[in-house]
Design goal:
The protein is α/β, with parallel strands linked by helices. The radius of gyration is 21 Å and the shape is globular. It binds guanosine-5'-diphosphate and magnesium ion. Guanosine-5'-diphosphate binds next to helix 1 and strand 12.
């Protein structure tokens, strides 16, 4: 199960309040200076700290947010989390909720296109207890978040949120190949463009999965990142083991004007790059007469999908499956064609039924992806004599990003 590492973080800038719901001081869609012309602090309540962690699909955003949530909780803070995806039934939401965190989900489009849903979700997080800090995970194929999310939050809700430095995670497997322009990455140049733009707008970059890298590999990645974004601080971490997170927490604690790197971005390239990915979310209930090993089912499902994708030469950006049973849950993932299938959170239970959620983001047509997932589900069900019911499946290519707001220059 998930382990929380205790780090002694100084968080005097975060506030400990307990209100029923986040009541915004600012009015949505009204420029803050209009109702606070003197600039004097008229705040009825102290601002909630907004921490957003971006990065490509499978980079380790959910694992990082879970670790940060543990750190902040240990420091006595009330944490709310917002997840985001182009579709419903998120494995990430399942993972974080099952770890006991208060999670709200913006589903159906990215934060930038659903800015009002994001603020609504954040407001709703305060229903049980006002959060001191909100951790937000944007869609992994999304970029331009400074101009479309952070700047509007600063401008329209300037007295409600205090903006932490914007962190972006580099995924070593795809990141190295893309930044070093090393052979076949499995993605087209337009999809690679998104990963690069994500790094460009970061206030700080985390090189994740250091537990799997040699010190030479970490150094090589640091140099690649520094060549690409020379001014941006880089921290090497392992979100799974917690290495480097005292530095991350200290980095996020900084006060100042962050989230100001507004991208020069071509939305045609961005939209076409995003649309090259096939997206699939699926949920179903599996029932059996005889108990079966839930972890093995999750591994077999992800392995089966991965093998069939390999056979058609389609690069997975992230495949993940969660299985839930009576308060227990297990998660299996794969994040690239050259990394193994991992049981990231073992359940260690023999079960007679489970609720399954599968999320797949792959560089292939959604129709192909759907066919593969359906056939693997069928195979694994037959192998174990499982009866599948309540199957919900959606597959698509993400539509063109149409941000609710886009600021072309920094507001403060
Ligand atoms: N070895 C290792 N695996 C990691 C690390 N961080 C994340 N992962 C794994 O990588 C996969 C994707 O992580 P996740 O947090 O879901 O990525 P996201 O798509 O960016 O939210 C999961 O299997 C995680 O367990 C890390 O630091 N080390
Ligand atoms: Mg995630």
């Amino acid at each position: 199960m998930h382990e929380v590492r205790i780090v002694n973080v100084k968080l005097e800038n975060l506030f400990l309040f307990s209100y029923k719901r986040i009541e915004f001081n600012s009015q949505p869609d009204t420029p803050a200076q209009e109702h606070n012309p003197t600039g004097a602090n008229m705040s009825a309540q102290d601002p909630v700290r907004y921490v957003m962690v971006g990065g490509f699909l499978g980079a380790g955003k959910t694992t990082t947010l879970s670790r940060l949530a543990g750190i902040y909780q240990q420091a006595g803070l009330n944490v709310g989390i917002v997840t985001n995806d182009q579709a419903e039934d998120l494995v990430d939401t399942g993972i974080l909720r099952n770890q006991g965190y208060e999670v709200s989900e913006v589903a159906g489009a990215c934060f930038c296109c659903r800015f009002n849903d994001l603020t609504e979700c954040m407001q709703n997080l305060g229903e049980a207890k006002r959060p001191d800090i909100i951790l937000a995970e944007p869609v992994g194929s999304c970029t331009d978040l400074v101009a479309t999310v952070i700047q509007p939050l600063k401008h329209l809700f300037n007295r409600d949120f205090s903006i932490a430095p914007y962190l972006v995670i580099l995924k070593p497997s795809h990141g190295r190949k893309i930044l070093a322009q090393q052979g076949r990455t499995g993605f087209s140049p337009k999809a690679e463009y998104i990963l690069k733009k994500q790094l460009e707008e970061a206030d700080g970059i985390l090189i994740n999965r250091c537990d799997e890298l040699t010190s030479e590999e970490v150094e090589e990645l640091k140099q690649l990142v520094s060549r690409f974004c020379p001014e941006t601080p880089v921290i090497a971490v392992s979100a799974v083991e917690g290495t480097g997170f005292d530095e991350v927490a200290a980095f996020l604690e900084q006060q100042g004007d962050f989230g100001t790197k507004i991208l020069d971005i071509d939305y045609d390239v961005y939209a076409e790059g995003e649309a090259e990915l096939g997206w699939l979310n699926c949920s179903t209930r599996a029932l059996s007469d005889a108990p079966f090993d839930l972890d093995q089912l999750l591994l077999d499902l992800i392995d089966g999908i991965r093998d069939q994708l390999h056979a058609i030469g389609a690069e997975p950006a992230h495949l993940k499956a969660i299985g839930l049973w009576e308060g227990f849950f297990g998660v299996a993932n794969v994040i690239s064609s050259d990394s193994p299938t991992r049981l990231s959170l073992p359940c260690r239970q023999q079960v007679a039924h489970t609720d399954l959620v599968i999320n797949a983001r792959v560089a292939c047509a959604p129709e192909q992806l759907e066919q593969i997932v359906r056939s693997v589900l069928q195979q694994q069900a037959e192998k174990r004599g499982l009866e599948l019911s309540d199957l919900q499946l959606s597959s698509f290519r993400p539509g063109r990003p149409m941000p609710t707001h886009r600021y072309s220059s920094s507001t403060m």
